[in-house]
Structures are given as structure tokens and as C-alpha cells.
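We store chain and fold; example below:
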Amino acid sequence: MSDIPAYILDRIFDAPREMVWRAWTDPDLLHRWYGPGADTTIHEFDLKPGGLWLNEMRWGDKANYQKVVFDEVTPPEKMVWRHYSSTDSDWNTIANPMMPDWPPILLTTVVFGDMGAQTKVRLSQTPVDATEAEIACFTAMMAGMDKGWGSGYAIMDEVLAALQAGTI
């Protein structure tokens, strides 16, 4: 088996750590920035080890369902979860209809570094129990993952600014 690649994205947000944590863990805020360009519905969000985050993203008549199972939750420092990137509407894992070789499970770790008025977030994702084809697909797509996360993070900047201004 090949070496397992890791996607890593570091980003500094102009908000204190507790506020950035809240943007990641409050479903009323999370749905605003997660899945940019989609209508995101969070069906369940149970932030504890073994808890589920059931997420639906819609683009017109197309939908993508994702399931997250939290492994570790250490407020406001760290979250670790298994991300089932494609499920059916009953949250059963299925092959990704747009990319059949996409790994079905990604181990995702998000670390929140306290920098006073700012927060450094490190997001990392690695395929779990992936085939050679899935690892190759993930490796090929890693460069483009910055665009999706970056678009969501740009919206999170707006959410954090509104939180700081007291408008949400």
C-alpha cells in the first residue's frame, strides 16, 4: 500500500478562539459557511465522542449527504472525526456518484490555536482504509481542496465579523 497522503490547510482567523470554535460547532453558524454555494441543512449535530453530524447539501435538484462521527472533542482546542463523504439519504455509506474512486472515509482533525484576538486553525484530512485507486484520487484532488475550504472560510470570515459586531 502507498504512503497515505495528508491534506493540510492552515488559516488564521481574525477572531478569538472561542468564537472560531463556535463557528465550527454551532449548527446555526456552521450551516452558513460549510458547503459554500450549496443550501446546507444540518439534520443532527451531537458534538461528543461517538456523536453524529448529519449534513445535507443541495444545489437545485442535486443533493449530497455526508455523515461525521466524532472521535475526539476537546473544546475549544481540537476536534477529530471520521468523515463519510458520501451517503444516501438514510446516512448509509455509498460510493461518491461524482467521483467513484474518492475515499469513502476521511480522518479529519481540526486544531484551534489561541493567538489572542486571532485563531490559527489547522485542518488535516487523510483517507482511512483506502484502496490504491482511492489514495490516487485523493492525492490528485488535494490541490483543489483549498478552493472549497477557502470559499467556506471566506464566508466564515463574514460570519465571525457579524458575530463580533453583534449582528448575529
